[in-house]
Amino acid sequence: MTDLKSLTFPELEQFVISIGFRKYRALQISQWIYKKLARTFDEMSNISKEGREKLKKKVKIYNLNLLKKELSRDGTAKYLFELEDGNRIESVFIPEKDRNTICVSTQVGCSVGCSFCLTGKSGFSRNLTTSEIVDQYITVQRDVGIENRISNVVFMGMGEPLLNFENVKKGIEILTDNRMLGLSTRKITVSTSGIIPGIKQMAKELPKIKLALSLHATTDETREKLIPLNKKYPIKSVMKELKNYPADNMRRIMIEYLIIEGINDSVEDAERLIKLIKNIPVKVNIIPFNEYPKSLFKRPSKEKIETFQKVLWDAGIATFVRDSRGQEISAACGMLQAKEKQTV
Ligand code: SAH
Ligand code: SF4
Asked: How far apart are CA 93 and CA 76, in angstroms?
């Protein structure tokens, strides 16, 4: 059966025509689903009962099953969803003064297997469908209320988005089409552990979307220990790809740097980082490691992180330390889902 929330607008138009409807019905249906956040065909009052019955036979509206919501004192909320096959995924809602952001998952588990990441430890089950990706946005938007519009989407939840490229791409098309969710392309960020073919594809097919690279280390030796995939896609070749990415000073690439005590937090690391990103329009986001019971790594002291940041600032690089919002509910990306599985 056709899955409505997996269709881009042109596909939706084709679909309505294929079942004998007039083309303008696509816009009506799209407005019910994406503007009014309808969950059933019965809500679509400008479509006749007969028409609605026909739709029900040909197409399904996939709605995620919300199992649990945890609210943090700072307003961050973590949502746990159950999929039709029983798998579970999570999303995080992060309200800020000037924007509301959702962090979405793209896979059940992750095959990259980074040594610091709880999602990676759980292995890989499957890719999410486009509707499972898009409905994280829709369900959370319904929950927080339409007056709190979610303006930003970061693909930084569970999974490696560039290993599920086609479904992520379609999801982004639905998120950014004005006839659908209508978000600005500048407010969507895809984070990758450095999948070179995926970065090339993004540059070609999604050139307006922001790219974030999880770099985390400045030598291949250290990066391999953190991200095993570095053996296949070493630092130099990934940085070369970033140079080719259509970014500029208005739309910089985000370098994510997970900072871990004694592993990658020295002044020498900061200096090597400066060399690596020279001539690439970037901003750097330092992410202090979020510890969890039995984790192999530790978060560096505040002073150590500040020193690291200062070295970069002094070299003229815009560098921020990502504050860990929603910490008491383990809402940090990479910590998702683990609690439910009791690996924490
Ligand atoms: N797979 C993609 C996107 C999802 S992971 C990627 O790796 O970029 C999103 C971010 O969460 C990554 O930058 C990752 O390094 C970070 N992360 C994972 N585990 C973490 C932890 N324990 N503490 C802090 N950040 C973590
Ligand atoms: Fe996968 Fe990203 Fe976690 Fe690495 S950090 S295991 S790429 S989700």
From this structure: 6
**pLDDT for 208 beyond 60:** yes
> How would you list the strands of the sheet with 319-321, edge to edge?
65-71, 77-82, 88-95, 100-103, 152-155, 188-192, 210-214, 253-259, 282-288, 319-321
**Is 90 a catalytic site residue?**
yes
CA–CA dist 235, 216 (Å, integer): 10
- pLDDT at res. 329: 62
The answer to whether residues 326 and 90 touch, using CB atoms and an 8 Å cutoff, is no
Pocket (CB within 6 angstroms of ligand 2):
110, 112-114, 117, 119-120, 159-160, 193, 334
Length of the chain measured in residues: 344
Measured in angstroms, how far is the CA atom of residue 140 from the centroid of ligand 1? 21
pLDDT at 331: 62
Given pLDDT bands bounded at 50, 70 and 90, which one contains residue 336?
low
Q: Which of 13, 90, 132, 160 is catalytic?
A: 90
- The SS3 call for residue 324 is coil
Tokens of 183: 């978000």
**Scanning the structure block, which residue is given the tokens 């982004």?**
172
pLDDT value of position 120: 84
Q: What is the mean pLDDT of the chain?
A: 94
Q: Which helix (H) or strand (E) holds 285?
A: strand 282-288
Res 323: pLDDT: 73
pLDDT, tens only, 23-33: 999 999 999 99
Query: Do residues 103 and 164 lie in contact, with contact meaning Cβ atoms separated by under 8 Å?
Result: no
Domains of the chain: 2-60 (1.10.150.530), 65-343 (3.20.20.70)
Does residue 122 carry a pLDDT above 90? no
Which residues form the pocket of ligand 1, taking CB atoms under 6 Å from any ligand atom? 116-117, 156, 160, 191-193, 214, 256, 258, 287, 289-290, 332-335
Task: Answer whether residue 324 shows pLDDT above 50.
Answer: yes
